[in-house]
Specification:
By secondary structure, the protein is of the alpha/beta class. It has helices at 12-19, 28-43, 45-56, 67-74, 79-97, 136-149, 168-177, 187-196, 213-225, 249-260, 275-289, 295-303, 313-323, 335-338, 356-361, 397-413, 417-424; strands spanning 3-6, 64-66, 106-109, 112-120, 123-127, 153-157, 181-183, 206-208, 229-230, 238-243, 267-272, 306-309, 327-331, 347-350, 387-395. The mean pLDDT is 96.
C-alpha cells in the first residue's frame, strides 16, 4: 500500500526528491512527442489518421463528426444521464459567469485616464482526454468558460472510440455548448494539429485541456515552436490529502483512489498527523480496491504514491505548499484555521464531506488545474483564461501639461530623444 515517510527524518534534499513527479529524466517522452509533432507538421491529416490507427487502433475515413452525427449519439444516453449533465452545466456556468467583471477607469493624474477592456481570444482549442476513461466533464469545464468569454471559434479534439466515433455523453455536452463539430484526434498529435493546423483542423491561438505526460509535454513544446499559447501544464492528475485524528479512514481512502483511478501515472499523497490513521487508510485502500472496476490502474498509481507522517497540521501545510498539489483536501475539523496558510494549490476541498469528485463534476469550480508543482505559478482554468485584457489610455490637453515634463525627463535620461520629442511637439 502507501509507502510511509516521517517528515522529521527527511533532509531538505530528500523532501525535494519526494515532491518531484512526472519527470522525463531520459527525455524518452520528449523525443517521442517531438517526432509526433514533426509528423503532423509535415503530413497533416495523413499523419493523424496513421497515428489513430497506431495508438487508438481505429481506421478513420474522416477526422471529424458533425451536427447530425452528434445529435444521433446524444440521443443514446438516458434522460437521467442528460439531466445530470444539465445540472453540472448549470452549476459550472453559474460559477464562471460571476468571473466577468468590468473594471473602472482610473484617472492617474488630472486629464490622464487609464483603463482595461476585455476581449475574447478568437480561436481556442479544447483537448478532451479519452484514453481509458472518456471525460465529458472536461468538455463542460473548458467549453463553458470559452462560451462565456465569447470566443468566436472553439475547436474540440478527443480520441476516437473503437467505433470511430465518440460516446453519447460527450455528444450531449457538445449540444449543450452549441458546438457542431468534434475532431477525432487524441494525444500529442491533437495538440500538434491545433498548434500548426492541418487541412481538416484549424490552427488555434490557445490550447486548453488536461492529459497524460505525452499531452502535457506536447503542450509545453508547441508553445515554443508556434505562436500558440497554452492554459497550463495539466496532467497527469494528483491529489494531496491532509488528515488528522478527526478524519474518517474510509473517506480518505476513497479520495485517494478517486485520483488514482485516472491513470497509472497519477499520484495520491496522504499527509497525516497519526501513524494509526495511515495504517487505517491502508486497510481501507485494500478493501476498496478489491471492488473497484479500475483496480489495476488504481493499484499502479498507488504504487507511485505515498504517505507522510507529520508532527502537526502546521507541518502538514508546509509540506503541502512545497508539493503544490493540483487538488488539496483538508480532512480535519480544523480546516477553517488552515485555509489562510494555503499558498500553493490548484483547487481546495474543505472538511470531511467535500470530496474532490464534487469539484471534478458538478459543484461549479473548474477541474482543469496545474499539476506537477505548477500550482506555484499557475491558476486553474477560468473565464480569464479565454480572454485578453487590453489597456487603454486617453490624455487631454490638461493631462498633457500634467504628465509631459515627467515623460520628457525620463526619456532624456534613457537617451531616447524621439520619445521625448513625441511629447514636445504636442506642447
Amino acid at each position: 500500500m502507501l509507502k510511509q515517510y516521517n517528515l522529521e527524518q527527511l533532509t531538505a534534499v530528500e523532501i525535494e526528491q519526494l515532491v518531484a513527479r512526472n519527470t522525463d529524466a531520459t527525455h524518452a517522452i520528449q523525443d517521442t512527442v517531438l517526432q509526433i509533432i514533426e509528423d503532423v507538421r509535415r503530413d497533416g491529416d495523413l499523419s493523424l489518421k496513421a497515428l489513430a490507427a497506431k495508438f487508438d487502433k481505429v481506421q478513420l475515413e474522416k477526422l471529424y463528426l458533425e451536427k447530425e452525427e452528434i445529435e444521433e449519439l446524444a440521443m443514446t444516453i438516458t434522460r437521467d444521464q442528460q439531466r445530470a449533465l444539465e445540472i453540472a452545466f448549470q452549476n459550472i456556468h453559474k460559477f464562471h459567469s460571476a468571473q466577468l467583471r468590468k473594471e473602472r477607469t482610473v484617472e492617474t493624474m488630472p486629464g490622464v485616464k487609464c483603463w482595461r477592456e476585455v476581449r475574447p481570444i478568437e480561436k481556442v482549442g479544447l483537448y478532451i482526454p479519452g484514453g481509458s476513461a472518456v471525460l465529458p466533464s472536461t468538455l463542460l469545464m473548458l467549453g463553458i468558460p470559452a462560451r462565456i468569454a465569447g470566443c468566436k471559434e472553439i475547436v474540440v479534439c478527443s480520441p476516437p472510440q473503437q467505433s470511430g466515433k465518440i460516446n453519447g455523453f460527450v455528444a450531449y455536452c457538445l449540444q449543450l455548448l452549441k458546438i457542431d463539430r468534434i475532431y477525432l484526434v487524441g494525444g500529442a498529435q491533437a495538440v500538434a494539429a491545433m498548434a500548426f493546423g492541418t487541412s481538416s483542423i484549424p490552427k488555434v491561438d490557445k490550447i486548453f485541456g488536461p492529459g497524460n505526460q505525452f499531452v502535457t509535454k506536447a503542450k509545453s513544446l508547441v508553445q515554443g515552436m508556434s505562436n500558440v499559447s497554452i492554459d497550463m501544464p495539466a496532467g497527469p492528475s494528483e491529489v494531496l490529502v491532509i488528515a488528522d485524528e478527526t478524519a474518517n479512514p474510509q473517506f480518505v481512502a476513497a479520495d485517494l483512489l478517486a485520483q488514482a483511478e485516472h491513470g497509472p501515472d497519477s499520484q495520491a499523497v496522504l499527509v497525516a498527523t497519526s501513524s494509526t490513521l495511515i495504517a487505517a487508510v491502508n486497510t481501507a485502500l485494500t478493501e476498496q480496491l478489491a471492488i473497484l472496476p479500475r483496480a489495476e490502474i488504481a493499484t499502479m498509481a498507488i504504487e507511485n504514491s505515498y504517505a507522510v507522517l507529520v508532527a502537526s497540521l502546521d507541518q502538514a501545510m508546509q509540506f503541502s505548499n512545497t508539493y503544490a498539489p493540483e487538488h488539496l483536501i483538508l480532512e480535519t475539523d480544523q480546516w477553517q484555521s488552515l485555509t489562510a496558510k494555503i499558498i500553493n494549490a490548484g483547487s481546495v476541498f474543505l472538511g470531511h464531506l467535500t470530496p474532490e469528485s464534487a469539484g471534478d463534476y458538478a459543484s461549479g469550480t473548474n477541474h482543469t488545474l496545474p499539476t506537477s508543482g505548477y500550482a506555484r505559478s499557475y491558476s486553474g482554468v477560468s473565464v480569464d483564461s479565454f480572454v485578453k485584457k487590453i489597456t487603454f489610455q486617453h490624455i487631454s490637453e490638461e493631462g498633457l501639461k500634467q504628465i509631459g515634463s515627467t515623460v520628457e525627463i525620463l526619456a532624456e535620461l534613457e537617451g531616447l530623444h524621439a520619445h521625448k520629442n513625441a511629447i514636445t511637439v504636442r506642447k
